[in-house]
Design goal:
The chain is an alpha+beta fold and 207 residues long. It has 2 domains: 158 residues, no CATH class; 44 residues. The protein has 9 helices and 4 strands, in the order ααααβββαβαααα. The protein has a 4-stranded mixed beta sheet, sandwiched between helices. α5 packs across α6 and α8 packs across α9. The radius of gyration is 17 Å and the shape is globular. It starts with a helix and ends with a helix. 39% of the residues are buried.
């Protein structure tokens, strides 16, 4: 697909603004990343093969370890906001999903579409957190739709952190049904989109 010079210039302008805005948004995070980095360090060291060939396994493992360390039940909502502040940039993003930055051991993220719903914003925050925890040297990075190793780890981490497959399985077994309306009810409990719950169901439960 051809990209016009106007789109490219607009993307550059948005990124410049997002760099500053994300750093400012990090100040809105209440808790330091140092509080949770050690909690998942064993997983990033233990699954190098998974991260190379099946990067989503690393994302899943990191999320499960973090929930376990923080003693958040698989069936409970996980609040990512203490570690990731958010803000919006005024310039059009021109297709960029988001930008994240670490400042003073706190994370800030700017998502490319202003006025996103809370569920979509929460997933973007969790994606940014996954990228940071999996790749510590990175201090600034673009969140994109690319299927790179880092993005696949981050998306799997976000999905499993916000809506764990084991928690979905437990609720489905308790209810005794697995139709779309039930998945929507579960999505409401986790405060995520029904599409995310369906994705988890298809990839980790039905499979």
């Amino acid at each position: 697909m051809a990209t016009s010079s106007g789109d490219l210039d607009g993307a550059v302008e948005w990124t410049r603004e997002a760099i500053l805005t994300a750093a400012a948004a990090a100040t809105g995070a209440d808790r330091s990343l140092l509080d949770i980095r050690d909690a998942i360090s064993d997983e990033t060291a233990r699954l190098p093969g998974a991260s190379d060939e099946r990067p989503w396994l690393l994302g899943y493992a990191m999320a499960r370890r973090l929930r376990g360390e923080l003693e958040v039940l698989d069936t409970d909502f996980f609040d990512v906001t203490p570690w990731v502040g958010t803000a919006e940039a005024q310039a059009p993003a021109r297709g960029i999903y988001g930008f994240a930055a670490v400042s003073h051991d706190r994370c800030g993220v700017v998502l490319g579409v202003p006025g996103l719903g809370a569920n979509t914003r929460r997933f973007g925050q969790a994606r940014a957190l996954g990228r940071i925890l999996a790749s510590r040297p990175q201090r600034q990075f673009i969140l994109s739709a690319a299927r790179s190793h880092d993005e696949r780890v981050a998306r799997a981490f976000a999905a499993e952190l916000l809506a764990p497959a084991q928690g979905i399985r437990q609720m489905l077994e308790a209810i005794g049904e697995d139709d779309d309306s039930i998945l929507e009810t579960i999505a409401d409990r986790y405060r995520v989109s029904p599409l995310l719950v369906k994705h988890q169901y298809d990839n980790q439960i039905a499979a």
